[in-house]
Fold this protein.
Amino acid sequence: MTAYALAKKGVNVAILEGKDPSIAKVCGGGLQLKAIRILPFGIEEVVERKISGMVFQRRLRDRFTRRYGSPVTYMVNRARFDNLLLRRAQEAGAIMFLGEKALSLEPAADRTKVFTGRDAFDAHAVVGADGAGSIVRRAINPGGIALVQMGLICELRKGAGNAHITEDVFIIDWGTVPGGYAWIFPKEATLTVGAMVPRELAGTLKSYLRVFLEKEGMKIKDERILAHPIPTRKLGEPIASGWGVLVGDAAGLTDPFTGEGLYYALRSGQIAAHHVARFLTGGGRLLDYEDEIDMGLMQEIIMAGKMRSFFNTFSGYIHNLYRKNDRLWYAFCEVLRGDRTLEGLRRTRTIPPKPILRYLEKFTSWYEAREIGRFKNSTAFK
């Protein structure tokens, strides 16, 4: 996305791609409508399913289904989606160097050297879009990202064992592991299944996913499971320097509530392109990128963290609200679609006034941390 936007502005862009972009990515593949809205081109060719409802399940039981009148999420195969973005970037003028994995950097005021296994590249500006294990982040933010959740994902082919799963809804289990959830997303020929938990509870992840899927009549083999960290940035953690910026997972721009990162990757890529272009023409600083992220995307991420603590503290109460309260359900769908922000969700009548909410935010943050600690010391899913 960054390469596309910069190439459109006439900037000489090199994409250093270590792996074949057609290789499967560790990603649920849920693309929110708000992400599609900011794209300057259509993606219909890579959309595999339109999701307009959810099956909610709490603590592996107490199940109900809710639907919305329009799609709330679009399911894509990440390899196909990434290849579409890559084609658009190349058509705009960006050049891809396949098999050139960035291994190290030598930052400098005028030009930064990027070393791969084969060559060295000189760059006036570097954009680190190299994921949760970013080598660019190590240079810009040696301290790393403090908040990390862990996820497991695998792709299962549709068959007799899961024939009951409806094509236009996805299944969510929550409240089972503090701060985490499990899911089943339907796609064209497969089901993407997975689970996400706080890093402190990573030891429970595989067992939790197995138990969740067994209740759906499915089994997975260890060789099919792919693990990945889900980093979430806190305010103050550097994502820009005098020579480069970080975008997407490399910057820790992921939703701590849902683990969603595609929208934040696309939007941060566009914002990065704007500031890199200004920097290259002497019209701005790369550090301005961090300022804009702090005032925009980070506010949604901070709010998502508060909402996660709130939902996990009052999971039973909220589960029943979603079952019975149309106003809250529609508001939640509007957030998923991008028609409403998480801050806007607070304005529904089911959310307490701000003075009470401020107290609740402190309480729920404490309560969630306590429950994570208790669960870690328990025998559940060990």
Observations:
- The two ends are 41 Å apart (CA to CA).
- The chain has a mean pLDDT of 89.
- The first strand starts at residue 14 and ends at 17.
- The chain has two domains: 2-295, 316-376.
